[in-house]
Amino acid sequence: MVIPYETDAKWESFLKYGTRQFWKRKTVIYKQGTMGEGFYYLHKGLVKIVSTTVKGNDRLLNIVVPGQILGIQSMDQQTHFTSAIAAKNSVVYHFSCCQFQEMLKVQPELLTLLTQTIHQKMRTLVSAINMKALTSEEHIATLLLNICEEYKNYEVPLTQQDLADCAGLTRITVYKILRQWKEQGMVEFQNRMFTIKDPDLLRATVYPDTAPVIPSICAR
Length: 220
Hints:
Layout: H1 8-11, E1 19-23, E2 28-30, E3 39-52, E4 58-64, E5 69-70, E6 83-95, H2 97-106, H3 110-129, H4 136-151, E7 155-156, H5 160-167, H6 171-183, E8 187-190, E9 193-196, H7 199-206
Antiparallel strand pairs: 1-6, 2-6, 3-4, 3-5, 3-6, 7-9, 8-9
Keywords: Activator, DNA-binding, Transcription, Transcription regulation
Protein name: Transcriptional regulator
InterPro entries: cNMP-bd_dom, cNMP-bd_dom_sf, Env_Response_Regulators, HTH_CRP, RmlC-like_jellyroll, WH_DNA-bd_sf
């Protein structure tokens, strides 16, 4: 099984440098426009990253799953340009800039890991720009593909309710779409896990002109 490069195994020995925090579902971990200092590592739970429009509406940009980091854009100690909201009860570790400097002294290669993460987040953010005009099917497909790319795994640790909460859709809508995709052989879902069976076919839901032989964005 291929696992993400931001794994618990990689971060476990560094959690002692961070501050453990518990956030209840629907609470704001950090808010767009507020001053940031450091970043967060999601240990348990699920977090959605949103951007607030001038009309006060939230637009979903990304879903953060356990083993990934968030809030990294504030490492320059500037204001956050997104908000992070716990989609379910979550445990995070906050690492201040000073704490990260101490971590680098112990293991300098963490700088490469951080750079990779920034690059990945930028790609996800660019992908999210066009999501406003997407249909419900395209929206869910894009979310799953983004998670697949970040998580480097065909198996996505989400429930249908998690996906509905993060996408801003009803669970019935999500269920109907997933059931149709299951019949088409694109996904399987049970308990607390989705398995993307055919990522190329799922990608074609968003990009109809995509050739079916295109290499998968998920590591095999």
